[in-house]
Amino acid sequence: MSVTSTETVIAASNDNSIRSLGASIDSLSPPRQKNSQVSKVYKQASTLFLTREFAEAFSVLQSILTVPERSREDAADDEEDEELKPQAPIATASRSSRVKVWSLYLTLLNTIMELGPEEGKAALGSKQWRDIATKVRNSTIWDEVVRIGYGGNEGHVDADVVTNLATLLLSHSASQSTNQEQLETYLATSDLPHAPPPSSKSKDPFATPTNSPKNNSYRESSPPTTNGATNTPHALASRLKILELYILHVLPANAQWEYARDFIQINDTLDDERKELFSHALEALEAEKTDANRNKKASKETEDLSSLQDLQHAEPRPIEDTEHDPHEQHHRRPNGEHDY
């Protein structure tokens, strides 16, 4: 091998080493420093939100909700080592900072949607407003949060964030099917002991849970006794809020009343008293929905009958003489004959 080719190989090797070292140093940045960046962005975005500078608030949040772009060479290296894959700053933030940021982001999206097309486009620009409206109405915002903030693990999403996501989709999504599927997946996987972050070397058997059903046959397993979803009062309250959204809002929106009743009875998180409360609330909602549909149908029938009666009592319109031209003038001759 020539000296030139040897130097080329060494240079390439050094470049790869530098890239790997740079990525390693970045991944070893003090957590406190990263969390400080997230907190600073959160405070700035909160101030902008409160002053209704929505475009600026959205832009500021993107700095910690966006995965850094990598070169093609770096991307190839990342495929060989999971720990070198870039992450958005929010993915490594503390739980409290993570919940605050995602809650602010979802509240901002809700406010932007409530602006409507005209005001929304004026505030953010046509393209940005359309992009936001599309991912909210199509429910892809849920996948975005899971992918960017939680490494694609639905069961790792913080309960408060799940509540905000479900509420956002209930208000603005065109269909509640995806909302139902995502809540079912979360309720199933979050009952498992939480796996360590994706970059951990832990041998925890639950590190990569595969129990992620996304269908109506979902049945919630018993709450875990250690490190589970309901082992603290706050965790239990958060889970009950999610169950309330799922049972009393999402399932009724999809007209799944019978399934909601069955789910209440087989759910292990709800005690007998709560099951009774949920059942009564569901029964009242169904009765209200039935009455609303009955009143709507009666109103439509009354409107149709009124229109028919108006039509029957309308005065007949005179038939015009199409053969006679009122503007035609007839001239008579002195002897009384028509002059044609």
Plain-language structure description:
With 340 residues, this protein is mostly helical. The protein is 64% helix and 1% strand. Helix 11 runs antiparallel to helix 12. The longest helix has 41 residues. The N terminus is likely disordered.
Write the SSE topology.
Layout: H1 3-27, H2 31-50, H3 54-65, H4 72-80, H5 95-124, H6 126-137, H7 140-150, H8 159-172, H9 177-189, H10 233-253, H11 257-266, H12 272-312, E1 331-332, E2 338-339
Antiparallel strand pairs: 1-2
Q: Descriptors for this entry?
A:
single chain, mainly alpha, 12 helices
Ends distance: 118 Å
What proportion of the residues form beta strands (DSSP E)?
under 5%
Biggest sheet descriptor: 2 strands, antiparallel
Indicate the overall shape. Answer: flat
List the strand order in the largest sheet: 1-2
The percent of residues in helical segments reads: 55-70%
What class do helices, strands and sheet pairing give? mainly alpha
Query: What's the Cα radius of gyration?
Result: 32 Å
Q: Report the total helices.
A: 12
**Model regions low in confidence, pLDDT < 50 over at least 5 residues:** 2-28, 192-228
Order of helices and strands: HHHHHHHHHHHHEE
The average pLDDT is 77
Number of strands: 2
